[in-house]
User: Fold this.
Amino acid sequence: MDLQSSQATELQQLWGSWTSRMNNLYEDPNVSKLMNTSVGQYLLKHPLLALTAVTFSVVAMLPVGLFLTFAMVTIIMSTVGFVVFEGFLLFVGGLFLLCALFGLALFSLVVSLVFRMLYVTVSKILIHPHVAEQSKDQTEENETLKLKEM
Assistant:
């Protein structure tokens, strides 16, 4: 008997705490505004429908929350991915620029060497024109000697 009476008192205490919490909930200004509307009055008259609506609202929070989390993560990842891709494109563009500048420097070096050799050759010919004439004369003499030997 003692066990049944203790369970009964626990049940009464639980019911009392549940009733006080419900009264506190109904006294909340936002809840009282809702309960004064026609929807609130309808839900008071149909507690099973009210329980279904509350259950659906609570259960629907999980998929909606997961979707919103997925959307935010997707937006953040897209932004980060765009920044990383932009950095990659700048890196590749910088490499192309480096290669082009290196090629231009090498081309400039080769052209300057060719012009330097041309300058040295032309200046030697112009400064010592008799050397060119002597080599021309020697070539003619060699040809005449060959012709005489034949």
Observations:
- Helices lie at 2-27, 29-36, 38-45, 47-127, 129-149.
- Residues 47-127 form the longest helix (81 residues).
- The CA atoms of residues 140 and 146 lie 10 Å apart.
